[in-house]
């Protein structure tokens, strides 16, 4: 795996007027850190834009990054239970639930993570994982097509069912974390109970006439947007922001029922070979300056309420407290029923 001893660091410093709870008072960490997370641009940006400043601050010289999706990484944590090679898990809320239940994550030494004090108690769901950012899921829509057809911007999750979108709506398959968040949100809207998954799946079954496709990957959905085949779809804010930066006319609408989404979380692997470096890394991710890096580089909405979002980005990064968070423990308990119901009522109709 590629290390991160070199790279161009992005520094936001004190000029932003934001102070972290604590910084250089951290104890001397080990000289190596092994983290796991998604690959691609996220891995590259962590290695080149986020790790170098951490290295200079804490003296951790070597980063080893293990890339994979949630299920792949969870399998690795389980396989290495008795002799882990990874220090830090960087995962979504649903993977956190599985890793915590399996006893794969260690309880934090809070004294080593002073910036955890900045996270509201309502944002902390586990003693073995801390959120570092939020992926808000809203409605992406092609602003050019909407203007051409005289359509108002979508204002509700239920806009997906409007007849004018017949054959031009899209959704991601249930293996995607955002798709699970959508199911919970629909259950909440339709019945007031996010656990009523049957009601949500029944409503999604009725969406088939409007769907151009159920997409197996975010990249495939991106391509359908760019080709003007899909006009409207639930997706994370980061995708809309990436489209904007690329000059593609894709807007990001906040449904009147609110955003749904999921948190990006970190945890120390139980028996981690470099526990001090692991705790230092998590504390660093929660510093105000790093929170801004995570927002601007990776598209994660800050978990800290004291972070001021640039005015032109506020529509992409709602406060974490305003993002509907599914009951991931319940979804984990009923994963088989959810997948079976989705396959029977949504996928098999294609």
Number of domains: 2
Mean pLDDT: 90
Structural class: alpha/beta
H/I helix tally: 12
Shape: globular
Description:
With 350 residues, the chain is α/β, with parallel strands linked by helices. It folds into two domains: 14-134 and 263-319, 3-Layer(aba) Sandwich (D-Maltodextrin-Binding Protein, domain 2), CATH 3.40.190; 135-261 and 321-349, D-Maltodextrin-Binding Protein, domain 2. It has helices at 40-58, 70-79, 93-101, 143-148, 177-191, 197-205, 218-226, 237-245, 275-285, 288-298, 328-333, 335-345, and strands at residues 32-37, 62-67, 88-92, 130-142, 169-172, 211-215, 232-236, 250-253, 259-268, 301-302, 323-324. Strands 1, 2, 3, 4, 7, 8, 9, 10 and 11 form a nine-stranded mixed β-sheet that branches. It starts with 31 loop residues before the first strand and ends in a 5-residue tail after the last helix. Residues 1-26 have low confidence and may be disordered. Pfam families: SBP_bac_8.
Q: Which helices and strands, and how do they pair?
A:
Blueprint: E1 32-37, H1 40-58, E2 62-67, H2 70-79, E3 88-92, H3 93-101, E4 130-142, H4 143-148, E5 169-172, H5 177-191, H6 197-205, E6 211-215, H7 218-226, E7 232-236, H8 237-245, E8 250-253, E9 259-268, H9 275-285, H10 288-298, E10 301-302, E11 323-324, H11 328-333, H12 335-345
Parallel strand pairs: 1-2, 1-3, 5-6, 9-11
Antiparallel strand pairs: 3-9, 4-7, 4-8, 4-9, 4-10
Helix pairs in contact: 1-10, 5-6, 6-12
């Amino acid at each position: 795996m590629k290390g991160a001893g070199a790279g161009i660091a992005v520094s936001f410093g004190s000029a932003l007027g934001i102070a972290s709870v604590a910084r250089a008072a951290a104890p001397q960490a080990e000289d190596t850190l092994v983290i796991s997370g998604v690959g691609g641009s996220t891995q590259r940006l962590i290695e080149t834009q986020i790790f170098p400043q951490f290295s200079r601050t804490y003296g951790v010289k070597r980063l080893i990054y293990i890339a994979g999706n949630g299920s792949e990484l969870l399998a690795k944590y389980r396989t290495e239970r008795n002799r882990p090679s990874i220090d830090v898990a960087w995962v979504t809320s649903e993977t956190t639930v599985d890793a915590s239940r399996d006893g794969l994550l260690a309880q934090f030494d809070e004294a080593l993570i002073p910036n955890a004090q900045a996270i509201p108690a309502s944002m902390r769901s586990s003693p073995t994982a801390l959120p570092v950012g939020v992926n808000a899921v809203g409605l992406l829509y092609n602003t050019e097509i909407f203007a051409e057809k005289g359509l108002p911007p979508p204002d509700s999750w239920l806009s997906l069912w409007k007849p004018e979108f017949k054959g031009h709506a899209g959704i991601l398959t249930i293996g995607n974390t955002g798709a699970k968040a959508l199911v919970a949100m629909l259950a909440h809207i339709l019945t007031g109970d996010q656990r009523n998954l049957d009601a949500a799946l029944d409503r999604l079954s009725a969406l088939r006439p409007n769907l151009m496709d159920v997409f197996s990957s975010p990249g495939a959905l991106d391509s359908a947007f760019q080709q003007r085949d899909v006009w409207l779809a639930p997706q994370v804010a980061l995708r809309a922001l990436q489209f904007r930066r690329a000059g593609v006319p894709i807007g990001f609408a906040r449904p009147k029922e609110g955003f749904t989404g999921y948190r990006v979380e970190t945890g120390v692997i139980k028996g981690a070979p470099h526990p001090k470096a692991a705790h230092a890394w998590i504390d660093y991710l929660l510093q105000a300056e790093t929170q801004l890096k995570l927002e601007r580089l990776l598209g994660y909405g800050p978990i800290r309420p004291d972070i001021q979002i640039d005015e032109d980005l506020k529509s992409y990064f709602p406060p974490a407290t305003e993002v509907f968070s599914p009951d991931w423990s319940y979804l984990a308990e009923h994963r088989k029923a959810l997948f079976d119901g989705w396959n029977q009522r949504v996928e098999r109709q294609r």
